[in-house]
Amino acid sequence: MNSPVHRLLSMAVASVLITGCAYTSLTDKNQQAKGAQNALVTSLGIKRIVVEKTQLEPAALSEIRDGYAELVGQFSERGLAQQLELRLADVEMLLAEERQVSIDASTSGGTYQHAISAYQNILVKYPDEASKEAVLYQLSRAYDLQGEREESVAVLNVLLELFPASQHAPEAWFRQGEAFYGQAEYAKAANAYAQVLANSENNNFYAMAAYMQGWAYYKLEAYDKALTSFDSMLLASFSDETLQKQAVSTSVLPAPVLPDMAQLPKGQQKLVKDSLRMMATLFSYRGNGEAIVDFYNVRGNQPHSYLVYNELAQQHLDNDRYLDAAEAYHAFASHFPAHPEAVAFYVKHIDAFILGEFPSEVLSAKAGFVDTFGATTGQYATLPDYVQQDARPYLHQYLRELAQTQHSFAQQLTTPTKRHTLTPALRSLNEDALRKEASAAYAKAQGYYLAFIDMFPDDELVAQMQFNLAESYFESAQYENAITHYEAFAYTFSDHEKASDGAYSALLAFKALSEKTLSDEVANSSLQGLKAKQRQSQQRFIATFSRDSRVVPVVQTLMQETFDEAQFEQALSYSDWLLNPPSGTTGSVNEQVRLSAFLVKAHSLFGLKHYVEAETAYAMLLADTQKWGIAKQDALTQTLTRNYAISMFKQAEAAVGQDDLSQAVTHLTRLMRNTPNIDIRVNAQYDAASYLMTLERFDEAQALLEDFEQRFPLHELTPTIEGKRLFVYENTEQWQAAANVLYNQYERNKSTDAGREALLQAAEYFELAGNRAASLPAYRTYAHAYPAPFDTVMEVRFIMSEFYKQSGEDAKRRFWLDKLIKGHDGAGDNATPRSQTLAAMSAMVFAEDAKYVFNRIKLTQPLKASLTKKRKALTQAVEAHNKVLSYKVREYATVANHQLGALYRQLANDLMASQRPSNLNALELEQYELLLEEQAYPFEEQAMQVYEVNAKRSWDGVYDEWVKASFAELSALMPNRYRKTEKVEALSVEAY
């Protein structure tokens, strides 16, 4: 055995063990064990466990087994030896499975003994290895496949004890439960099955464990627990969505899926059926259908629960227990009306009564169906579409049957000739009791009629249902409801041969109701409400059945009543009806009726504010008063004329509302032309003028306004015309006319602000008109009469000064300039920048005057006398310029500053240029010159200081012509300091 071939085989096997030992036949450990089952499991139809054949050829498998057997003792390394022995045991297992498949099971005893021995040997040799869990499981399988059930269970118990969380635990607990159940130890079996159920719902033994637990609890007479276990089995069986079916429905929204037993394997179907049978049997002794309800209220409703109700009902039907079957169906349908099977179950509930021949119960059951699924008394609106679709055909049938039955019953009760068909108990009742019974029957019938009509509004039977409903109300003296449904019948189905009779029956019901109401002495408001409804019914009768011979007088009455009540739309429709009766109308409409209709038409159009049509109607009546027999001067004619005018006036108002003032003027002009003497003409002319002003059609507006003043001098609106004329004059630049209006307003209101403002505006308009003769006095009057507002009077004073400046009247101008100075100086807090500027301007004029006087004085001999006069003029000029400077107005400050310097320099120059005494010798003349220089120098110094003050203004950004002039003077006086050429550097835009 030490040949090269053997050594190569050993090396190959070792290599396989080292690199591939992770793969063994243990990968088959999740397969169901194959072999004989106990009697109970076999009787339940559970399929035998089938082990798939491996794909290895028997010969090759045997050779591998022999190879492993030779190598087992040749490796001293423990881990490698263990793996080799595991591989050998697995191969023995595979060979045993192969042999078991190929031979008769009855002669297969001992087939797995080699595998069992191999696994036992591994457990002994390697008790603490990680592979122990897998080895125990394989050993239990080998025992089980060999038919040694007790040994298999014993090994599984060891597995559970050592490895409670093993993946094989569910199978182990299940087999333990089987063993206990086979030994009639039901409590232990139930606990073992509970371990399977607690493991996971996804394990392969869950459904079977729940089923067997149910039987174990049943054997223990623990029926509540048995029910729970059987229900868990059902839940597990239908947990796969593939085992559910779509409920049949024609609705848009699909019904929810329901458990479908047909999708289960046959063996599983048998278990499910048996579970349902057991649950139904238990519930039949615990309260029937309501017991199921209570059970699932606690446990929580399940998708398969309807199968339990159905099974219970079927058991009762099989045993001819129809009432119990009906109760079971009803329990489900009444508690779960939204379920896809609810309608079917309720119909079966009714069918059970039919099968059992309980006719009174059938009628009550149909009523219950309506109460459950109906739209009025039931839950129809809240039910899913698929339930509604299922319920509709039955509701159609049951509502009709119930209504007819109750109506017929009520008629029997109220009709003495029909009472012989009543039961003896009913025949024995007195009239009051019979009336109560009849009232109840009528109420039920009416409810069913209404429900049918509401649910099937387009059904061909609705007309008959509506008429029957109305009849039932009339028969029971419920006239208001009778009216409603007679009218619904007559006017919804107006082509029906009895439609007009139905409409007339409604009028009869109104008559009966009115008589009843009057006898009850109800409140006037109720009578009025009833009258209104009666009128509406009459109106519908007229509109729908116009060819009826009773229509004409009804129309006449309604026309007058509705007009008297200011219901103009209706009155108008009736007047039109009478003026143009429908063809085929019986009865005539004479001229007096036509006149009434025409008057009602015109007044109704007026009342409805249909002023265009009303104008036409009034015009037609007024155009031919002789035809209508109307006197031209009577009150009716006056009323028609006034309404005619108002119709045109209202059209103008409507046009204004639509911003169409031009159209409004057209309407008002037509009014003034067609009804010149009506009182509303005043408003029309006034409004027309106003609208023309807005439209800037000032010539037309002016004509109307001036005519208004002449035509209506005493009218309350006339005082407002003057303002409107002023607006027109202003917009057409008729300044003289506008000024005249304003001056008149001033004359009337001198002591008011309005008068003051009118005077000022008049002065401005006189000025715009070029009327200086009127403008100047108006401004002068304002300036003298209204010292406030301050800023306004200052402007007027300025205007006055400008007037006299233009006319060259210097003295008058200086009067107003002095007013400006004194006005600002005395204004205090009222002073404004504008008044300050005006004061500075005025002061500058007076400074110029002082400068002029100063410049005119020449220094002559004797010098002292002329110099004294010159210096006095200088003082006045300086004061005048300082006055200008005191206002700190820049445009006047710089010129005043510069001229002030000029005054000082001028005096210095004048001193040096003054006339010399003629009697001086050369020395005296020289001394005289020096004396003049000493006198002139301070003035020159003063001039330079004043110039410098003005020049420094440039530092503050002020550099006007007077500052520049001051710089020029300084350059002449101090060339070394001020005669410098400005250096201007050009800046490039690109640099920035």
**Shape estimate:** flat
The main pleated sheet reads as: 2 strands, antiparallel
State Rg.
63 Å
**Percent helix among the residues?**
over 70%
Q: Output the strand order for the largest sheet.
A: 1-2
Distance between the termini: 107 Å
Quote the average pLDDT: 85
How many beta-strand elements? 2
Features:
single chain, 992 residues, mainly alpha, two-stranded antiparallel sheet, 1% strand, flat, disordered C terminus
Structural write-up:
This protein is mainly alpha-helical and 992 residues long. Among the domains are: 167 residues, no CATH class; 57 residues, no CATH class; 99 residues, Serine Threonine Protein Phosphatase 5, Tetratricopeptide repeat, CATH 1.25.40; 147 residues, no CATH class. It is 71% helix and 1% strand. It is built from 45 helices and two strands. The protein has a two-stranded antiparallel ribbon with strand order 1-2. The protein starts with a helix and ends in a 14-residue tail after the last helix.
Briefly say what this structure is.
This protein is mostly helical and 992 residues long. Among the domains are: 1-167, no CATH class; 552-608, no CATH class; 609-617 and 643-732, Tetratricopeptide repeat domain (Serine Threonine Protein Phosphatase 5, Tetratricopeptide repeat, Alpha Horseshoe), CATH 1.25.40.10; 832-978, no CATH class. The chain has a two-stranded antiparallel sheet.
Give the topology.
Elements: H1 4-20, H2 39-43, H3 58-71, H4 78-102, H5 113-125, H6 132-145, H7 149-162, H8 169-182, H9 186-199, H10 206-219, H11 223-237, E1 244-246, E2 257-259, H12 266-284, H13 289-299, H14 305-318, H15 322-335, H16 342-355, H17 359-373, H18 385-414, H19 424-427, H20 431-455, H21 462-475, H22 479-492, H23 499-520, H24 524-544, H25 551-564, H26 568-579, H27 591-607, H28 611-623, H29 625-628, H30 635-657, H31 661-674, H32 681-694, H33 698-711, H34 721-731, H35 735-748, H36 753-768, H37 772-785, H38 790-807, H39 810-825, H40 833-856, H41 863-886, H42 890-912, H43 922-951, H44 961-973, H45 975-978
Helix pairs in contact: 3-4, 4-5, 5-6, 6-7, 7-8, 8-9, 8-10, 9-10, 10-11, 11-12, 12-14, 13-15, 14-15, 15-16, 16-17, 16-18, 17-18, 18-20, 20-21, 21-22, 22-23, 23-24, 24-25, 25-26, 25-27, 26-27, 27-28, 28-30, 30-31, 31-32, 32-33, 33-34, 34-35, 35-36, 36-37, 37-38, 38-39, 39-40, 40-41, 40-42, ...
